[in-house]
Amino acid sequence: MRRYGPALLLLLTGAAVLRITLFGDLYLRYVQAGLRPYLIVSGATLILLAALTAVLTQSRDDDHHHRHGPRTAWLLTLPALALLLFPPPALGSYSAGREAAQRAEQGIGAFPALPSGDPLTLTVGEFSSRAIYDSGRSLKGRTLRLTGFVTHGDDGTWYVTRLLVTCCAADATTGKAEVRNADALPADTWVTVTGTWHPKGALGSDAAWPPVLDATAVKQIDQPADPYEKP
């Protein structure tokens, strides 16, 4: 059976890719929604290659070659099997904490007007951009609502955090807002925080990062199907 190892590896990998794309939204943990068709094609192609490899292997008389093949080659199937049975979770507080906050004095200017009505739902990225770079101070006096997962800082501070993905999880960057006047929940808990902007620091400066939200309500929620924000 060792000679069918390459075919089995292709089959498991293809099945894992199809599982996370055809039967749910698990693929959104790793890539943008627009890449779903390419993942489906890739998964189907891998399964076809597995079938072709098995047929060619069966037709070859290569018993001597496989008698001397390394038994450890079967270990290569374990990562594919793990992906099929136990898909990794979305990136969370550990990934967010590894990225140092680096902000420069650039992009300062007036932003487009915000919709009327409170509370106003913003992404964490939108809130951060306006809090740090908006010369028109469009967040002032507004009741805001942000959704993300909990990360912890020093001295008891905590943040509502979201990872921004341009293409896939490998290029994720971090956006976060410090939450005040509310008790922290465990790291990686998903929450919706309602509150008001608390200005700090000069526009575009390191002192303005991360922006602050004075909370009036914190609601624990389930992780959304798509856990990442888009640029």
Automatic annotation (TrEMBL):
Family matches, as Pfam families: DUF1980_C
Annotated DUF1980 domain residues: 131-228
Membrane-crossing segments per the record: 39-57, 69-86
Keywords: Membrane, Transmembrane, Transmembrane helix
Keyword field contains Membrane: yes
UniProt entry tagged with the keyword Membrane: yes
UniProt-listed PANTHER family: UPF0703 PROTEIN YCGQ
Name of this chain's protein: TIGR03943 family putative permease subunit
